[in-house]
Amino acid sequence: MASSRAEGDSQEPINEQAVANKFAAMRSELNQIYSKITELEMDVSEHSLVINAIQPLDPSRRCFRMIGGVLVERTIKEVLPAVQRNKEGIEEVITRLNEALERKKKEISDFEAKYKIRIRKNDGEEKEDGARKEGTAQGVLVGPAGGSE
């Protein structure tokens, strides 16, 4: 009985359903990390666009910056270093998230190996995916080729 308590304390899954649930939770965490990295990469891209747009301008020229939902007036000389620091900070966070992503991938692959998990797709599911892709492509509306003039 003591050994079963020790196993329960170490958070080991007890049955197949528990293993499947833990695996699904791990995959969900992995997807959340991917999503956050993508979101932050978009932010870095936006910061780069702003930096490239205001760098060649006169440093004494006034510009506006959104800080915590409030639009403030500053000069380019004040704003440019702040935007560059923000961009660098976001890039550092992306680096840390990529490291966490690699750790999570390794954790998932170890878990798969330990419990001999195999992900399989049925033929029916693949056909449904194809149907869904076609459905999204059909959602695009295009006007007449000649146009109404």
UniProtKB/TrEMBL annotation:
A single GO BP: protein folding
Listed Basic and acidic residues bias regions: 122-135
Keyword tags: Chaperone, Coiled coil
Coiled coil: 87-114
InterPro entries, A to Z: PFD2 (IPR027235), PFD_beta-like (IPR002777), Prefoldin (IPR009053)
Region of interest called Disordered, as start-end residue ranges on this chain: 122-149
Top-rank lineage group of the source organism: Eukaryota
GO cellular component: prefoldin complex
Gene Ontology molecular function, alphabetical: unfolded protein binding
CDD domains from the UniProt entry: Prefoldin_2
Family, per entry: Belongs to the prefoldin subunit beta family.
Stated name of the protein: Prefoldin subunit 2
Organism: Rubus argutus
